[in-house]
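Record Serine acetyltransferase, 194 aa.
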Amino acid sequence: MTIFSRLKEDLATARAHDPAARGGLEVFLVYSGLHAIWTYRLTHRMWRRRWRFLARLVSQLARFLTGIEIHPGATIGRRFFIDHGMGVVIGETTVIGDDVMLYHGVTLGGKAPRNTPPGTKRHPTLEDGVTVGAGAKVLGNITIGAWSAVGANAVVTKDAPPHSLVVGVPATVRPLSNAAADAARGVHDWHWQI
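=>
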């Protein structure tokens, strides 16, 4: 995929997820979530080439400018969107699938003892189509299954199977109704049925 087709896909993703988006130029110029993702892609390439210090330096500059911290070592799929973005933190060993959406204040953080060897997986995996609500904390080497939704302000420390609704402190897992599962896949006029 060329850089221009990737940019076009990112702009289309933002417009699909945000009804307030008025046009491609506006999204391109003012959406901090997109700026953070674009900077992440650059720093991730640096990270893979072992330009670790430069990658971290550029990612911290992006954090200063956008309010979103994405570690260059994280692995992020296509059509990833961060809505509003301020306060989002994505840790080094996080793995994010395709079509994932995060709201502001989300932490995808580590949970491991202090003396954990470098390279140990200590951050979550979000499979394809996961949506994480504002302020949610997803912590540790856990997996949130495909097309699941994590509720706002949930604190998640255990795996969730595909098509789950994960809510509460500590979070509990419930199956998504058919309508909610469809909504997680992009069908919009739905209501939660638990």
